[in-house]
């Protein structure tokens, strides 16, 4: 987990007046949420449990996150799953495959990733917040790759194009994983790159190529 570079997108902003918030408590709360997700799963996780485990008051917690789904989404965002991979840099295709392998694996606390994704299918609020975060991460990474490659089409990718790509990847990965969150094969990931992402980003399929 990248403890030093946590960007809480659903955390409430500090109040304009009053005592300044202790930012170190954010890390304690996130750590407690991840521990309890591991131990109890999303369904049995409560905000009271998180506050107790973190050693903070419920008021402190609710001044930062008012909804369990928002807290869990920000905690989920600290896992390696949503971190930039080490890109090979040899071609757009090889970098895209590296990205797909990164977002489809759950080596960092796999039980948390699997159980949270399973619960997201039953809780619309959690599903929405996680898919939005996942898609936003993909849009950022795809935008970086498109701007640093010679393989991409000459016209820069528009924001709406990146959003469609991010949403498409999220939907296809969820489809491949199925209702039980099964591992996604490398062949499926390569097919996603060759027949979807490369077509959308360059206008051409690269079927049959090998890396």
Describe the structure.
Helix content is 60%, strand content 0%. It is mostly helical and 211 residues long. It has two domains: 20-66, Orthogonal Bundle (Arc Repressor Mutant, subunit A); 80-202, Tetracycline Repressor, domain 2 (Orthogonal Bundle), CATH 1.10.357. The two termini are 29 Å apart. The model is unreliable at 1-6 (pLDDT under 50).
By secondary-structure content and strand pairing, the structural class works out as mainly alpha
What is the count of DSSP helices, taking H or I runs of 4+ residues? 9
Helicity level, as a percent range? 55-70%
Strand content: under 5%
Query: What is the CATH C level class of the largest domain, in words?
Result: Mainly Alpha
In round numbers, the mean pLDDT is: 81
Low-confidence stretches: 1-6
Domain tally: 2
Q: Give the overall shape.
A: elongated
CATH architecture of the largest domain: Orthogonal Bundle
Radius of gyration: 19 Å
Could you tell me the number of beta strands?
A: 0
- Largest sheet properties: none
CATH topology type of the largest domain = Tetracycline Repressor, domain 2
Element order, helices and strands?
HHHHHHHHH
Termini gap: 29 Å
Brief characterization of the structure:
Helices cover 60% and strands 0% of the residues. The protein has 211 residues and is an all-alpha fold.
